[in-house]
């Protein structure tokens, strides 16, 4: 794609290594301890800014601010007024989309061509939830009591929401948590990942500019083990919503038991992508490759287990390997970059460990598998798109979520076999199917245990369509009307009228 603005100049204007305070109760504040952490550009290792390293006391202050707003001015906003506010936020996001996109690219590495392309999804979310703000209602229910007794339900905001997001999509993840909270009349404390905290702080400025009342949206930067843990256990938080690893999700669920707060978890995955023998190979190859290589494999829905019908396996996997070798690897701010860096040296080391494991267990390395070095790459965390053939179901690379640009390709012989193997995982987040047989597609859709199933496509996410996982991939849904219900309590009302 061709950008219509100077991304490099905008990048230079956004961050200069200086301090960026967090946002609590409408105020820009430092951590009470005075501690800070550094936010890096994963492509260069450059320090973009320093941010507060929040402790439990800072989280407590944010909860107090959110509770005060929930029971105060925000409670008086009508559904129409909440809708107007969300539409104003959407307009401000549209006007500032280039800044948001460049910020995401700088702090978490996704190529600018992809962060810019997220515009429709993110602004679409804001406008979808704005529309939903005036559509929330209870219902009148006929009951079985004699006499004149009316029964009906009310939908009421659940209260203070704690939202913990990952680093791989700061803008989209922030809005997926904030927008439904605003639509339903809740208040929110957002805790971004310590690896990518900068765009959420930029979002807070736009919220303030839009006129969001003080305390309705709060951004607390800090470590998950400290700030995130306090938010999850806090007795005055009514709901916790989390996107991230399954292990952390389990810890959050345990922490939430104290006050039995409502919990929504969107966790890890090891998603199968099934290529049937009648698949359109030329169409399927780039989609199968980018089902993993998009954002260097750092996506929870990555279709990293590639099951290919034996009749076309060698041809198909060979083409995927060729495609992997054709991708341009570089700094995300360059508009011709296909694959950017991994988020950190720590994550790069994890992925290198998986690649070594695949080789030692006997998988056939067909493309990639190395960390790049040299003047363009030495400051960053770049691993080439990697394709393994000859993978067995019990290998680590076929069982564990890698969160890196690694495809594990395996042949299959029958539909019953591939369904059994695809479902033989503790995860159930997403799946993909390529076939030109509509009947077969429907049969597979029914049998695959995953929260989202794409047929002859991958990665599609829309604000109106629910998204979430089964099994160890979490519970609850984001998107669609089901998402709003996660932020509402249902109250039953009885009135005797005679």
Automatic annotation (TrEMBL):
<protein>
    <submittedName>
        <fullName>Aldehyde dehydrogenase family protein</fullName>
    </submittedName>
</protein>
<feature type="domain" description="Aldehyde dehydrogenase">
    <location>
        <begin position="28"/>
        <end position="493"/>
    </location>
</feature>
<comment type="similarity">
    <text>Belongs to the aldehyde dehydrogenase family.</text>
</comment>
<dbReference type="InterPro" id="IPR016161">
    <property type="entry name" value="Ald_DH/histidinol_DH"/>
</dbReference>
<dbReference type="InterPro" id="IPR015590">
    <property type="entry name" value="Aldehyde_DH_dom"/>
</dbReference>
<dbReference type="InterPro" id="IPR016160">
    <property type="entry name" value="Ald_DH_CS_CYS"/>
</dbReference>
<dbReference type="InterPro" id="IPR016162">
    <property type="entry name" value="Ald_DH_N"/>
</dbReference>
<keyword id="KW-0560">Oxidoreductase</keyword>
<dbReference type="InterPro" id="IPR029510">
    <property type="entry name" value="Ald_DH_CS_GLU"/>
</dbReference>
<dbReference type="InterPro" id="IPR016163">
    <property type="entry name" value="Ald_DH_C"/>
</dbReference>
<feature type="active site">
    <location>
        <position position="266"/>
    </location>
</feature>
<dbReference type="Pfam" id="PF00171">
    <property type="entry name" value="Aldedh"/>
</dbReference>
């Amino acid at each position: 794609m061709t950008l219509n603005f100077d991304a490099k100049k905008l990048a230079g204007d956004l961050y200069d290594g200086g301090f960026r305070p967090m946002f609590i109760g409408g105020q820009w504040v430092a951590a009470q301890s005075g501690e800070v952490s550094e936010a890096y550009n994963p492509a260069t290792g450059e320090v973009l800014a320093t941010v507060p390293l929040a402790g439990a006391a800072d989280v407590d202050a944010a909860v107090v601010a959110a509770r005060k707003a929930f029971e105060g001015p925000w409670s008086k906003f009508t559904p129409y007024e909440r809708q107007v506010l969300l539409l104003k936020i959407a307009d401000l996001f549209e006007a500032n989309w280039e800044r948001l996109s460049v910020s995401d690219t700088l702090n978490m590495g996704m190529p600018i061509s992809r962060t810019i392309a997220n515009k429709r999804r993110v602004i679409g979310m804001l406008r979808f939830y704005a529309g939903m703000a005036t559509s929330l209602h209870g219902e009148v229910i006929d009951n079985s009591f004699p006499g004149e007794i009316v029964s009906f339900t009310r939908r009421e905001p659940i209260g203070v929401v704690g939202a913990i997001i990952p680093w791989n999509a700061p803008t989209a993840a922030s809005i997926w948590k904030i927008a439904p909270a605003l639509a339903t009349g809740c208040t929110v404390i957002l805790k971004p990942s310590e690896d990518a905290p900068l765009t959420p702080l930029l979002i807070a400025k736009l919220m303030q500019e839009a006129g969001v009342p003080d305390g309705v949206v709060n951004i607390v930067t800090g470590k998950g083990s400290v700030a995130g843990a306090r938010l999850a256990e806090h007795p005055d938080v009514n709901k916790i919503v989390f996107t991230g690893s399954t292990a952390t999700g389990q810890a959050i669920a345990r922490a939430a038991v104290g006050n039995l707060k409502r919990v929504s978890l969107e966790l890890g995955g090891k998603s199968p992508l099934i290529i049937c023998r009648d698949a359109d190979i030329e169409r399927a190859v780039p989609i199968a490759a980018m089902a993993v290589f998009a954002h260097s494999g750092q996506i929870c829905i990555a279709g990293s287990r590639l099951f290919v019908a034996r009749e076309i396996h060698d041809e198909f996997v060979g083409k995927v390997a060729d495609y992997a070798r054709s991708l341009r690897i570089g700094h995300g701010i360059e508009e011709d970059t296909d694959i950017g860096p991994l988020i950190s040296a720590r994550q790069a080391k994890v992925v290198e460990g998986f690649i070594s494991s695949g080789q030692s267990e006997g998988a056939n390395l067909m493309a990639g598998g190395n960390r790049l070095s040299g003047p363009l790459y030495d400051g960053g965390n770049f691993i080439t798109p990697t394709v393994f053939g000859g993978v067995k179901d019990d290998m680590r690379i076929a069982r564990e979520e890698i969160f890196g640009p690694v495809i594990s390709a395996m042949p299959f012989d029958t539909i019953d076999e591939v369904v059994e193997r695809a479902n033989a995982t503790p995860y159930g987040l997403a799946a993909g199917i390529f076939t030109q047989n509509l009947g077969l597609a429907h049969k597979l859709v029914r049998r695959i245990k995953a929260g989202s199933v794409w047929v002859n496509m991958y990665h599609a996410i829309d604000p109106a369509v629910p998204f979430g996982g089964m099994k160890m991939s979490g519970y609850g849904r984001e998107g669609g009307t089901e998402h709003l219900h996660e932020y509402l309590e249902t109250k039953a009302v009885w009135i005797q009228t005679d």
